[in-house]
Specification:
This protein is of the alpha+beta class. Helix content is 58%, strand content 9%. It has a 4-stranded antiparallel sheet with strand order 1-2-4-3.
């Protein structure tokens, strides 16, 4: 049972978050804008709605961060790091969700037919990957946060099937901090996967999770022209964006 100061802080957070989420939901554009029967596409109106949605989304994040700072010192000291990490994961679910490369490392260590040298090499590789991944993910999350505060940050819109689409007005600068941070994650995953594959026999590699490693969401991003203007879209999973 939370003590009085913590209970009060959580109640205040819940009330303020509910208000911020209601504003965000009202401002949120939907995929119907592009769908059949949606009428003529109005770029100016779309940009205005995206700007309002981005502002509402930033407000939700500000509420989350401010209340997290209030709650953290009220927790037992042993729980504070865990709480801060959970806040970070929930704020950037796409960044901190388990990667396919990480899952491949974990699955490979469960193989009963590894010899001693393989197990030692893969264990060392996983330790190295986990250490690098933490730093790379923090850099990516910070770049996302900075980008979302900029005019080019665009915003997100809900698709008819429940997914989330991230929208940017104009092409993405490949030398930008966000693009570079995402590339660093992609490179780490690719490099680690290659090193893992080099340690496994063909029959062992067949047992690893299949499919392209799209975790770092340079993920099939596409630049499209709508209404005479460029829009950069990156599709996300149905839960992407969380409570931001």
């Amino acid at each position: 049972q939370p003590d009085a100061p913590l209970s009060e802080a959580l109640n205040d957070y819940e009330l303020e978050l509910d208000r911020a989420l209601a504003v965000k939901e009202q401002a949120q554009p939907t995929g119907d804008t592009f769908g059949p029967g949606g009428g003529q596409f109005n770029m100016e109106e779309f940009q205005e709605r995206m700007a309002k949605a981005r502002e509402a989304g930033l407000k939700v994040r500000e509420v989350n961060q401010r209340h997290a700072r209030r709650v953290e010192p009220l927790l037992p000291e042993a729980k504070r790091w865990e709480f801060a990490a959970a806040v970070r994961r929930d704020s950037f679910p796409r960044v901190y969700r388990p990667s396919r490369t990480g899952r491949a490392l974990e699955e490979s260590l469960k193989f009963t037919d590894l010899d001693g040298a393989q197990r030692e090499a893969i264990t060392a590789l996983k330790t190295s990957y986990d250490r690098e991944l933490a730093a790379v993910n923090d850099r990516w999350a910070s770049a996302i946060e900075d980008d979302e505060k900029s005019d080019k940050g665009g915003g997100t819109m809900v698709m008819p099937g429940g997914g989330i689409m991230q929208v940017r007005m104009g092409d993405e600068d490949k030398s930008s901090p966000l693009a570079q941070a995402r590339k660093a994650r992609t490179d780490l995953d690719s490099r680690t996967r290659e090193r893992l594959n080099s340690q496994l026999r063909p029959d062992q590699k067949e047992k690893l999770p299949k499919g392209p490693d799209r975790d770092a969401a340079g993920e099939d991003g596409a630049f499209e022209t709508v209404g005479g203007m460029g829009i950069f879209v990156v599709e996300e999973d149905g839960g992407g964006g969380g409570g931001r």
